[in-house]
Amino acid sequence: MIPWWFLWSEIVRRPGRAVLTLMSVAIGVATLLAVSISIGTTRRAFQELYQILAGRAALQVRADGGNTFDIATMEIVGETPGVKAAVPVLQDYGILYVRSQRVPLTVLGILPEKELLARDFVFQEGDSFPQRDEILLEAGFAESLGVQLGEEVLLLTRRRPHRFQVVGLLASQGAAAFQGGSIVFMPLDTAQYWFRAGNEINTIDVVLHDGVPEDRAARALAERLPPGLSVAPPSTRTEMARETLFLSEQGLSLAAALSLVAAGYIIMNSLWMSVSERRRRLAMLRTIGATRAQVFSMILREGVGLGLGGTLVGILGGVVGSALLMRAMEQMFRTTLPLFQVDIGSVVRAAVAGLVLSVAAVVLPAWTATRVSPLEGMQPVPDEPSSASRRWIAWIACLLMAIGAAGAVLLAEGIVPPSATPAVVVAALVGMSLWIPQFLTLAVRLLAVPLERSGIVNAFLACRQVVRRRTRSSLTAGVLFVAIVMSVGMGNSVLSNTHRVKDWVRRAIIGDFVIRTTAMFDLTTGESPTIPDGVIDRVEKVSGVLSVEPWTFARTRVDGQLAMVVARSFPVGAPLSLDLYEGDPQDVRRRLLQGEVVLSTVIARRTGKGVNDTIALATEHGPQRFRIAGTCDDYIMGGMVIYMHSKIAGERLGLRGANSLLIRTEPDRRSATESALRKLCEKNGLLLHSIAELAEAINEMMSGINAALWALLVVGFVVASFGLANTLTMNVLEQTRELGLMRMVGMTRLQLARYVLSQAAVIGVVGLLPGAAAGELNAYIINRVSNPVMGHPVAFHVWPGLIAGCVAFGLVICVAAACLPASRAARLLIREAIQYE
């Protein structure tokens, strides 16, 4: 076996190339790890939030419509075989007034003697459960507000503001910090009174005996529960979170996968150059007795060593990158996420991906090295791949493109899950990039003719040199190809979706102001606090107000999937405020008042329902069937939304109260009306937003994740610059004697530098121009695949500015990467260049 010290001497002989190769692997691994950690932490945050609410409960009983139900149901649940305890909970929302602060929080009404069976309570201060008009707070949350044990605080309830005494401070446990610890515990009867729940609750946490299967207990409970109640694991409450996270996860995963592909091209290119440069050394090794297997092992170990080093550096970079992505996710979800956790699984997956990528990329150069016979190795110019090899590459390219095309069809039909999108896109992309060697020859010929006729000697010679090292040039152009396809494809998707969301805001939220409580709408459960009683009447009496439209939200299920009912009054004379996809606005308004519903395009896609079909909604009174008046695009709750008239929602679903108010005002009195509305909101602990502010908030939610995606696209070009610098440096080394001869016949240093820069430009044109076209094709495929899968009808747009910007940025990267090799070529001394071996 060829010793390791020999391999190390070969690596340090070209330290610049080794560093560039190592960094390309590091960036790919870091991107993958950062994405994995960020997505995993966000998922865990949502999951852990509900674990603290559910405690040890294996199942939860809830009303299908999201309303309350009689506490007597607790006895039915407790008598079910396998159930150890049935723990009733009333969950609502309140606003805590502490000095000048108004803090939204979740209120949990509990029975202490039952609650201890489901949750662990660790007191940091105090040691007793609350009695009437007493509450428990999380210690860190109380400290942030300056609240002491025994102090009285003012809490806004559904009846009116009321003072409660803090009798206990709980140690922070689980994911309470996910909401900043903003959870308050109070006795169940106290919560029922102040939040107007009568003798009702909205959740029963079910604790099972050890060893009782959840599915068996769930079936037994389902048989006993009254109509309108359902039982499910607490984890189902995160379904909406998964819907909200899915689009960002797919975008980040695709960008990470493409970064790894670009890194693979870099490794293959670097090692291919290494093999080409060491042909004579390899021939000498073969002459003195080294076997083909030993040569293969030597190149393989070299590639794996560089891959291992890059993987270790990438893991450190991934930890730093995940912190940046986490801040973007926080901005998107408008919340504070817990500190990210570097779980072993994510690290192992990233490390395995880096090593597998390195091994896969080094196999072909290593195999090529074993094909070099001693006689062939003495040739100054390495042979290009044989015609048989080129045929195999063509067949592989066709196979990968066929896999990509078939995968796109299967994704569009819903046969394969959307999570397969990155794999499908990568397969198609690699297949297209394998055709670059064929395109390279044609493109250079087309460029060489006008350059020769125009007398631009540097560019003409550069074309000749690029073709002379076709494999190396193709791999480098392939990196640029991947980078611009990723940039144009992902950038097109980002711009198109951003444009669509802005258009949705303009069409669906038509008004001047929105009033809501200070508690943010819960993206994951569809739950939201309601406007206090009497506020709507007072708002309607404000001078300058033309109309007030209450919006009420309620959870439901459609075909077993969580969805949200949005009940609205759709006042006559006001715009419909729906981004209709199917249906006439006037006809839809009339049919809504008659008891029909408008379905979001996402639900329509998943259920296969359309206009004039009927759909069943799970409610507390059992399944309720509604006729579909139209479909609309919507982005609330991941698009899982059903609109109906408030009157119908009250009659058939029993919805009460309003979660927000959409207000239209007289244009010439808007400023005075806003001032009056703001005073009213401050008095009642509410928030007033202008529609412009709301649109800006939505844009801010999107900007964080978009910024992360754009940053990953820039990373692709940075990785490409490594490959280009590698290739041009190798070209300069191989052409050292030729460059010396050029200097002898009168070529200036500036002309030599321009000669190297021209090579970069030619490779850039070969990789960037077809890459831009393939990027648009990739964007079109992503659009056509994602529309039916996601259910949002996003029109495909060609963004000329994006294409021009990506190509221009790519060319700038090419020139920047060529500066160092060009400078090296310009500094060559004629005597040393002629003597170079």
What would your notes on this structure say?
The protein is of the alpha+beta class and 837 residues long. 58% of the residues lie in helices and 16% in strands. The protein has 27 helices and 22 strands. The strands form 3 sheets. Strands 13, 14, 15, 16, 17, 18, 19, 20, 21 and 22 form a 10-stranded mixed sheet that branches. Strands 3-4-9-6-8-7 form a 6-stranded mixed β-barrel. Strand 14 (545-558) and strand 15 form a beta hairpin. Helix 8 (239-277) packs parallel to helix 11 (344-370), helix 17 packs antiparallel against helix 23 and helix 23 (691-734) packs across helix 24 (736-744).
Keywords:
alpha+beta, 837 residues, ten-stranded mixed sheet, 58% helix
What is the average per-residue confidence, as pLDDT, rounded to a whole number?
A: 76
Radius of gyration (CA) equals 33 Å
Distance between the termini: 28 Å
**What is the approximate shape?**
elongated
Number of strands: 22
